[in-house]
């Protein structure tokens, strides 16, 4: 076989791999979508600073205009919580625990690319707290589940959960707050909800859309912090 033929075959393989990768990205982008509205559930306590988001922003969002984002090089990530109501009460405890673990580890993985993940406050450290909430008329009964040692499990997918995701109403909602770890001053906060573009029984299994929503939020938080850090 000639060198020219070899190069042609290699080019064909590369083109095929690129096509597969692009298809995977497109599928991932289409699996979840932002819902039309979101209902604050009380995790953030104070919502007066939040405004309606625009474009790719969360549905409700606050960015502190006086924050010095360049000063922070590390971040504390609190254990993720579930605030739940009538629907999520039907989820077994192990499934609720898996939800918190997967979101925590998605945040840990993404933010760990840009920041040192620490377990203690410091002058150059932010603190992130997050909760999975159920929107759309849920009766919030309190913060009942948290990851005690989230690093111990390092779950990366929800595919092992046995409970039918119809219980989760095909959606996942989140409330997030970032503060200065020393002063507690709010730097940013957001409330957002995403649903499957089709159904939770679609491509990749019945929990795939919730997985993708968690990954989307972690990646979006990472990207937004990078943008804020780059601003002068």
Description of the structure:
This protein has 232 residues and is α/β, with parallel strands linked by helices. The protein has one domain (33-230): Double Stranded RNA Binding Domain. It is 31% helix and 23% strand. It contains three helices and ten strands; from the N terminus they run αβββββαβββββα. Strands 1, 2, 3, 4, 5, 6, 7, 8, 9 and 10 form a ten-stranded mixed β-sheet that branches. A hairpin with a 7-residue loop joins strand 2 (51-52) and strand 3. Helix 2 (93-111) packs parallel to helix 3.
Write the layout of secondary structure elements.
Layout lengths: L2 H29 E3 L16 E2 L7 E4 L10 E4 L3 E3 L9 H19 L4 E3 L6 E9 L9 E4 L24 E10 L5 E11 L11 H23 L2
Parallel strand pairs: 4-6, 4-7, 5-7
Antiparallel strand pairs: 1-10, 2-3, 3-10, 5-8, 7-9, 9-10
Helix pairs in contact: 2-3
How would you sum up this structure in a few lines?
The chain contains 3 helices and 10 strands.
* Mean pLDDT over the full residue set: 74
Output the CATH topology.
Double Stranded RNA Binding Domain
Count of the domains: 1
The tally of beta strands, per DSSP, is 10
Annotation keywords:
232 residues; alpha/beta; Double Stranded RNA Binding Domain; globular
